[in-house]
Design goal:
The chain is mainly alpha-helical. The protein is 75% helix and 1% strand. The protein is globular.
Amino acid sequence: MNFSSFLLMRQEIILLTIILLLVAAEIAINKTKKQSIVHLAIFLFGIHTIIGFLPMQSSNLFGGMFRTSELIHFFKNVLNVGVFILLLQSADWLEDKIVNNNKGAEFFILLFSSLLGMYFMISAGDFLMFYLGLELSTLPVAALAAFEVTKRISSEAGIKFILSAALASGVSLFGISMLYATSGSIYFDDIIKVIAPTNLTILGFVLFFAGLAFKISLVPFHFWTADVYEGSPVSIASYLSVISKGAAVFILMILMFTVFKALMHVWVNIIYVIAIATMFIGNLFALRQQNMKRFLAFSSIAQAGFILLGLITGTHLGTASIIYFVLIYIFSNLAAFGVVQAISLKTGKENMNDYEGLYRTNPNLSLVMMLALFSLAGIPPVAGFFGKFFLYTAAASEGYYLLVFLAVVNVTISLYYYLLVVRAMFLRTSDHAIPYFKNRLYMRLGLLVTVIGILVLGLYSPLYDYIFELSKNLN
């Protein structure tokens, strides 16, 4: 292995360099100019995101512990785009609330460290690298969830998240130890060759799956989600909802379709039941919510149930459908959370009733929120419709017609509660409507990018065909 081999870790090395530069900037920059750290971090990560689109060859390092392929590289770019949008939407909050408390650099360092862990997790070639990436991606988020230390609810969110994550991590690690006991190796390629559906192997898989199901917020591992989202800063709730969940979905998909392919007759039944429970519980509980962060939390749980429609197939069509849906979901959910963040920052209001009459005072924000909710609901011609359509197609192609029917029923339920927000904004009036305000440049750019993503991926996009071709090389 020579120095050029380390270019396979280009994304990881650049992100680590950015983290170190931010540490140096925190030390060097005068206290009166700490706001420049926000601009510096966004600029550096923007460069990193652009560099990420340069082509990269498929290979591995460290004897197969770290591997990369066109599909893995593409998904890292998807995560980069999502984090960059999130940074744009968070800039105003950071400048107004966080930098003054001298914690601006810490926010970026923790966030980028978590993303670095996700890089290693989805590039893992063995369970050791996977577990290290999983822990690195999780622990910084616990600190971020409790970032607003002056709020009791934020501290509570951090404690709930770290305790739940520790339990999930321990369960997952116990499952990995069982898989090691039955296969004699922690390397994915070695396990594929010898894995057999024994009782110990199945138990190990179930425990391992439970750990990842926690990060994806699948029922019954979802109990932490609404409380943590509500207590966390909006940007961190957004990060948990799209970036953390997206990375966990991707690595779970890879492992299910490769390492655990021999156990498919077992995990298909597990996924079937969990998919139905996740969709129904997420949607039915969303009907009762008034707080927008809790509302979007249960919405994200329901969306995770839809993702399982692609996962249950075990095919290239399912792989492409999942990745395409996650890409669309990132744009849609970030648009919704972006509007919530903008309103929360200016007014402190986060309840659905507070949005009554919003269209009359802030029509642009109302339209962005409506577009995001329509995409999440799967209404044509916005992108969310095609994301769900491809998932339905993947499931139906393998004969899961009842599951597809139940998914359509859940789309109807979700449309009802998404329209509750639309009704509040467009049809209701209020004597205490949110007054007109103008967002600053970063927030406007962040929302603009999400709107473009929702429209372009819905109206015209050859991207699905590209993803489908990449998925054929999954190994």
